[in-house]
Amino acid sequence: MSEPTPELPKQWIKGLVPTMNDKGFMFEVLDEYADEFIRSSSTPDNEMLDIGCAYGVATIPALRKGARITACDMDRRHLDILKSRAPEDMHDRLTLFTGALPDIDLQDNYYNAILCSRVLHFLSGDEIDASIRNMFRWLKPGGHLYLVADTPWGIWRNFIPTWEKNVANHERWPGHMPKPINFLPYKPSSDDVGPPLMNLLDPTLLRRTCEEAGFIVDKASFVDRSDFGDKGRMDGRENCGLAAHKPD
Ligand SMILES: C[S@@+](CC[C@H](N)C(=O)[O-])C[C@H]1O[C@@H](n2cnc3c(N)ncnc32)[C@H](O)[C@@H]1O
Predict the structure, then answer these.
(1) CA gap 158, 63 in Å, rounded
(2) Cα separation of 72 and 58, whole Å?
(3) Ligand 1 mutation pick, 16, 22, 23, 117, max ligand atoms within 8 A of CB
């Protein structure tokens, strides 16, 4: 008998659905970079790839736009829940793929667009570079890349002095934060372990990594998350995002 599909975890903060593997939350409010990925899903022959898709906050609206989409996540349970939430008559355009960046066994020169939203900051610097080089390979010439990541200017504000010191020391990855739980602006509960590492980013770091991998960067900016409540919200620099394309 097959295992029953797990249920979407309960939200204890409105709009934030907890992941099942201590990799933060899926945010129900989308940003301009995810919106652009979804908009580009309306071209019927497009092959789209959502890496770190969680329960489908971007995958499902992209599917509804008509594209074929590969939903990829390191946690199979997230993908099973995603499928259970996607309209059944669209399942033939949905591929589920379990894999973890940087090395996922995906086809080269295959995708028209890739979204990787709020995943890269869980990786070491070398893994971020390797992931972006792989995304370059997976995209068709002319294909589009959309990235979103956490910065120090939100929930990770206690890290800002370390970030500034690291920037002044010209460290390649100033946002490298071992034991992130120690930097939370509130006392975590005793069973809260959090991810083992965070690597906070900003538009400059996203741009550098993508340009080094061969991308042409169309836009790199901070993302104002005025919807983030309490200590998640700071000054309009809570997330950073990038849109780029692979040259023809
Ligand atoms: C913070 S959630 C982001 C979900 C959604 N993309 C969003 O923007 O709200 C991170 C998701 O990425 C997945 N993830 C984390 N590290 C990953 C990796 N190295 N490779 C693939 N997926 C990963 C997690 O399992 C989780 O579903």
Answers:
(1) 38
(2) 12
(3) 23
Count of structural domains, the chain = 1
- 121 Cα to the center of ligand 1, angstroms: 10
Each of the 248 residues of the chain gets a pLDDT tens digit; together they read 667 788 899 888 888 899 999 898 899 999 999 999 999 998 878 999 999 999 999 999 999 999 999 999 999 999 999 999 999 999 999 999 999 999 999 999 999 999 999 999 999 999 999 999 999 999 999 999 999 999 999 999 999 999 999 999 999 999 999 999 999 888 777 777 788 999 999 999 999 999 999 999 999 999 999 887 778 888 999 999 999 999 99
* Ligand 1 atom nearest 73 alpha carbon: 22
Query: Which amino acid, 115?
Result: L
Distance between Cα 23 and ligand 1 center (Å): 6
Determine, yes or no, domain membership for 106.
Answer: yes
**Is any ligand 1 atom within 6 A of the Cβ of residue 57?**
yes
Does residue 134 fall inside a structural domain? yes
Atom of ligand 1 nearest to the CA of 102: 19
Contact assessment for residue 233 and residue 150, using Cβ atoms and an 8 Å cutoff: no
68 CB near ligand 1 (under 6 Å): no
Beta carbon of 207 within 6 Å of any ligand 1 atom: no
The Cβ-side half-sphere exposure at 167, using a 13 Å CA radius, reads 13
d(CA 153, CA 234): 6
Tell me if 159 is assigned to some domain: no
Domain that holds residue 219: 20-152+200-245
Distance between CA 27 and CA 34 in Å, rounded?
11
CATH number of domain containing 127? 3.40.50.150
**Domain assignment present for 162:** no
pTM, to two decimals: 0.96
